[in-house]
Amino acid sequence: MIGKYVHGSSSIHKLDPRTKLVLMLGMSLVIYGASPAALLFLLVFVLLLSPASGMPVKRLLGSLRPVLLLFGIILLMHVLFTPGAPLLENLPFATVEGVWTGGIQVLRFILLIMYTSILIHTTSPSGLNYALMYFFRPLGTFGTDIAFMTGVAMTLIPDLFREITILKKAQTARGYRLRGIKGFTALVVPLLNRSFHRVDKLSDALESRCFHSGRRNYYYSRVLSGKDFFAGVVFVIIFISIFMV
Amino acid sequence: MPVTIRHLTHIYDVDTPWEIKALDRIDLIIMEGGVFGLVGEMGSGKSTLATLVAGLENPTYGKITIDGNSPRPGVNVGILFQQPEDFFFEKTLFRDMVSVLKNKGLTQEEIKLQIHSSLDMVGLDHQILDMSPIHLNRGTLRLAAFASVLAMRPKYLILDEPTASLDPHSRNKVIEIINKVSKDVTIIYISHRLQEIAAISDHMAVMEQGRIAFTGIWQDYVRWAVEQNKAGDLPVLNQVMIGLQHQGLDVDPAVNSLELAVEQVLRVKVP
Q1: B81 contacts B157 by C-beta, under 8 angstroms
Q2: Which helix (H) or strand (E) holds B36?
Q3: Whole-angstrom distance between the N-terminal and C-terminal Cα of chain B?
Q4: B20 contact partners, CB below 8 Å, separation of at least 6
Q5: From CA B122, how far away is CA A26, in angstroms rounded?
Q6: How many CB pairs under 8 A join A and B?
Q7: Mind telling me how many Å the CA of B197 is from chain A's nearest CA?
Q8: If I label B59, which of A24, A177, B135, B271 is the partner at 20 to 30 A Cα–Cα?
Q9: How far is B175 from chain A (nearest CA, A)?
Q10: Residues linked to residue B4 through DSSP beta bridges, in sequence order
Q11: pLDDT for B71-109, tens place per residue?
């Protein structure tokens, strides 16, 4: 599962959420610009990072399961539409170049998902929310509102999955066969209904607690520590090794 | 033949940091007929047990049988989830109820007959069938959902907190209907309102932290609660009766209705 935080005390848990968010963005750029050999290095690195963050490698690999179909489609599109030498004699439209470029693209997605899984596994939703608020602050009220909405939306995603599970069971118990368009409607209509109710209640609760649009204040201020600077240095070394050496 | 639950253990998210043992070695037999009350605090495992008995999930360990067969949702067991009024999605109630019964392979005439008789059971007007669920109030929708599950003619029916978030009038109406329906269908009634359990259940079980802490009848439960220093959890009526008994009055602390309590107090001779 990509989106679930697990409380822990690993070094990566202890990093400031702002540091992790910036490093994640930086790592995304590195993943997109890296050569195939560098991608393999980044794969080894994330597999080492996983136990260090308290996330077993098995679960990290499990986070890829929901997107396996997408990987298959990406690979297929490249295989079919990349010009080059035919892969097999009786399959002239599938090319060797397509397999190579498709494989690399899939590897890039795999790495993105793995690094994101580690970020979410080690960063609480409130931490992520704080980091988003911090970086959107220069945009003023608009920025903090956007950051707040993003944070709330992220918190509601696991709730949505829980709701779908409840609805599946409830409709099955009522005798519905959850197949085809009808089955889809039986899930989506009540899901929207319940979600709008939930969001409505949430907005009432926020208003009743004097929440208003604009810049946020924090009771505790976060200060970057030596660990954050060390993580930054490690990232810079990786960056230099991949792009400059 | 009863509902038989043997060595039932259920664990959510096995082998993950979120692993939770919701049920722990449950053994329970629910006899056919009447109302079986299942009580417990929030998170005690009542709803998990209901989901497993309804056959909507497979237990991690253990076995459940209904009349010797595996539970089959909509066939030998029905379940009404909490706040079932949210589950309607068709334009009219009729279309919603028809969709369910069509899957059971019934003819149009049989479907109509079953829908009308289930509406009669819950005391709803047949005209309601042409209305959209969004135009009906929560209490009426709750009854319509009840009718919808009754129309499937289950032998066993699980009701998970059917009176939650209802006003007292609607709540009393639901209780009244359950009493009426329980003559034909075995009801497994889940609630944390002991007063309701006392009023309608023939037998009951108490769940605590995923285990069955007590099984028996209401009168035995009151004695058990007093012995376990849990009298404070009992309905106010029973607490008052226990207080009167401690004052030396000859009253039964396990009464299950206000009328019975008043009757006892009026005929008691003050020492």
Answers
A1: no
A2: strand B35-40
A3: 50
A4: B11, B12, B13
A5: 62
A6: 54
A7: 24
A8: A177
A9: 21
A10: B29, B65
A11: 988 778 889 988 887 788 888 999 888 887 887 778 889
Task: State the complex-level ipTM.
Answer: 0.74
The secondary structure of residue A227, as a DSSP letter, is H
Q: Mutate one of B86, B96, B97, B160 to test the A interface: name it (highest A CB count within 10 A).
A: B86
Six-digit token pair at A67?
Answer: 């997107």
In whole numbers, what is the pLDDT of chain A averaged over residues? 87
Q: Which of B208, B6, B54 is nearest to A166 (CA)?
A: B54
Tell the residue number behind the tokens 């903090």, with chain if given.
A144
- φ, ψ for residue A78 (rounded to 5)? -65, -45
Contacting residues for B202 by C-beta, under 8 A, at least 6 apart: B33, B34, B35, B36, B217
State the average pLDDT over residues B127-153: 88
Q: Are the CB atoms for A215 and A137 separated by under 8 Å?
A: yes
In chain A, what are the domain boundaries?
A: 1-123+223-245, 140-214
Taking an 8 Å cut-off on Cβ atoms, the answer to whether B87 and A185 are in contact is no
Strand partners, A25: none
Rounded distance between C-alpha atoms, residue B204 and residue B223, angstroms: 14
B168-181 vs B138-150: helix axis angle to the nearest 10? 10
Q: Is A181 on the interface with B (CB under 8 A)?
A: no
Quick one: DSSP state of residue B120? H
Q: Which helix (H) or strand (E) holds A137?
A: none
Q: Which residues, listed in sequence order, are joined to residue B189 by a DSSP beta bridge? A: B37, B159
**C-alpha span between B121 and B114 (Å, rounded):** 10
**Beta strand ranges found along chain A (DSSP E):** 86-88, 91-95
Name the residue of chain B whose CA is nearest to A56's CA: B16
Residue closest to B218 by CA, chosen among B244, B246, B232, B238: B238
Q: Token digits for A190?
A: 């009540």
Provide the residue type at A139 as one letter.
Answer: L
Q: Decide the pairing of beta strands B203-208 and B211-216.
A: antiparallel
The pLDDT value recorded for residue B126 is 92
